[in-house]
């Protein structure tokens, strides 16, 4: 089992013919993910060879789905066009939409988020590394060589910390690692992923990585306390951040005690989550849990 993405997933890439799209489509093909085509209205009817695979280019997500049976789209579309690309994919009822693009205007993300209401599409991102179910599939930019399959589920706001945690726990491996992105408005949340991992029989324990700003981690703590029976360890990036400063990643802002790493750590610990002060300490906490499972 894996959450949201598995070996049966058929993936198309919106923006496949662009620089970033082509580069990462190649890496996804090389990882063994089943990439079945791309979308670029201006290049419809052509094909490109990426990663040694000839991939057709379609004029729309709907057409790509009809021709290939695709059920996942990964969007590498410039920020100015990301909203339209998302709406096109949602209208086509693609089950999973992974939006990698960084720098999407918050207003656009909010409009897409509102548009998702009542629709059948699950969106991950924007501004995220996407999702990997090791040895099964990859939709995004996470290097597939970091870790193999195993019993740990990982959900993270930060791309680089996703990679670091996968590396630290590579001897155990992962069912799925999902980078949800650090923007103020995102599709899939910590809570969504926690629920999916809780319901996945192969996931035995969960790592949750958050960061300062907002209250997502506090809400996740309350959810864990009420609904999650599996062991969870956590890490909150930003313990050394000065209060009242807007930090770079996602423009996380800390005001007073709410949104600080310490406040989030306390909320998580109150819910029974062990929280490390560093990523390595967090990995060590997970090792202890894995030894005793």
Automatic annotation (TrEMBL):
Entry GO MF terms: nucleotide binding; succinate-CoA ligase (ADP-forming) activity; succinate-CoA ligase (GDP-forming) activity
Reaction catalysis annotation: succinate + ATP + CoA = succinyl-CoA + ADP + phosphate; GTP + succinate + CoA = succinyl-CoA + GDP + phosphate
Catalytic residues identified in the record: 249
Entry's EC annotation: 6.2.1.5
Residues annotated as binding CoA: 17-20, 43, 100-102
Keywords, alphabetical: Ligase, Nucleotide-binding, Tricarboxylic acid cycle
Single Gene Ontology BP annotation: tricarboxylic acid cycle
Subunit structure: Heterotetramer of two alpha and two beta subunits.
Family: Belongs to the succinate/malate CoA ligase alpha subunit family.
Protein name (database record): Succinate--CoA ligase [ADP-forming] subunit alpha
Species of origin: Nocardioides marmorisolisilvae
Name of the gene this protein is made from: sucD
């Amino acid at each position: 089992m894996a959450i949201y993405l598995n070996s049966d997933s058929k993936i198309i890439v919106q923006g496949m013919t662009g620089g970033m799209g082509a580069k990462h489509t190649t890496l996804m093909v090389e990882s063994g993910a089943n990439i079945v085509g791309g979308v670029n209205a201006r290049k419809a009817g052509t094909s490109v060879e990426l990663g040694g695979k000839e991939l057709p280019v379609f004029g729309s997500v709907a057409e790509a789905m009809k021709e290939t049976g695709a059920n996942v789209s990964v969007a590498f579309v410039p920020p100015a066009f990301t909203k339209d690309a998302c709406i096109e994919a949602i209208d086509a009822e693609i089950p999973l939409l992974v939006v990698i693009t960084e720098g999407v205007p918050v207003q656009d993300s909010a409009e897409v988020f509102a548009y998702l209401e009542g629709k059948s599409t699950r969106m991950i991102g924007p501004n995220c590394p996407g999702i990997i179910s090791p040895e099964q599939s990859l939709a995004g930019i996470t290097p597939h060589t970091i870790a193999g399959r195993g019993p740990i589920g990982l959900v993270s706001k930060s791309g680089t910390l996703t990679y670091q945690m996968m590396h630290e726990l590579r001897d155990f491996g992962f069912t799925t690692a999902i980078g949800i992105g650090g923007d103020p408005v995102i599709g899939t949340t910590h809570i969504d992923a926690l629920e999916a991992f809780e319901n996945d029989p192969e996931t035995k324990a969960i790592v949750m990585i958050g960061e300062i700003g907002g209250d997502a981690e506090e809400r996740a703590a309350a959810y864990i306390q009420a609904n999650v029976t599996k062991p969870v360890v956590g890490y909150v990036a930003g313990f050394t951040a000065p209060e009242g400063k807007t930090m770079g990643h996602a423009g996380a802002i800390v005001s007073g005690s709410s949104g600080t790493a310490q406040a989030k750590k306390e909320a998580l610990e109150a819910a029974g989550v062990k929280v490390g002060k560093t990523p390595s300490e967090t990995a060590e906490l997970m090792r202890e849990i894995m030894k005793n499972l």
